[in-house]
Amino acid sequence: MTCSGCGGSKYPKVNVTAAIADHLQTQPDQPFDLGTLGSDEWQKICVLDPYTANTEGAKILGFNWDFESQSSIKENDGINLLVFVKDQSVVAFAEHLRHKGDFTSLEPSCLDREDAVVKPRKGTKDWISFVKDE
């Protein structure tokens, strides 16, 4: 279950949670290429942590976008917001359920598509976090 592309017809739905959960189920110790998600249109992916407001989001993205009205990221601690970017605009986004793979430990917050491989890391209580694959 994901709330994907909640911004209406301008932003296409991207079901990232199903793909990430499937990867963790079938290849739990293997790196995951975020570049395989969504359409071919995006150039970088940015991850916003729970409670991110528009001002913080603009610093991460490098441009303004109204996260607060397009998603529930500002008040929902159960999701990461994955934002697909081309040039200086959002082309798609998805609210990803953190219990299906958490991105709050990911550094940097934005990754170029060609370098968007992350690896799962087990935490407490079998919580899986994704970190940058070195």
Could you characterize what this model shows?
17% of the residues lie in helices and 30% in strands. The protein is built from 3 helices and 8 strands, in the order βαββααβββββ. The chain has helices at residues 16-26, 54-61, 67-70; strands at residues 3-4, 32-33, 44-48, 79-86, 89-97, 110-112, 117-122, 128-132. The longest helix has 11 residues, at 16-26.
List the helices and strands and how they pair.
Elements: E1 3-4, H1 16-26, E2 32-33, E3 44-48, H2 54-61, H3 67-70, E4 79-86, E5 89-97, E6 110-112, E7 117-122, E8 128-132
Antiparallel strand pairs: 1-5, 2-7, 3-4, 3-6, 4-5, 7-8
In brief, what are we looking at here?
With 134 residues, the chain is of the alpha+beta class. The chain has helices spanning 16-26, 54-61, 67-70, and strands at 3-4, 32-33, 44-48, 79-86, 89-97, 110-112, 117-122, 128-132.
Specify the helix fraction band: 10-25%
Number of helices: 3
Q: What is the arithmetic mean of pLDDT?
A: 89
What's the total number of strands?
8
Unreliable stretches (pLDDT < 50, length at least 5) are 1-9
Name the descriptors.
single chain, 134 residues, five-stranded antiparallel beta sheet, 3 helices, disordered N terminus
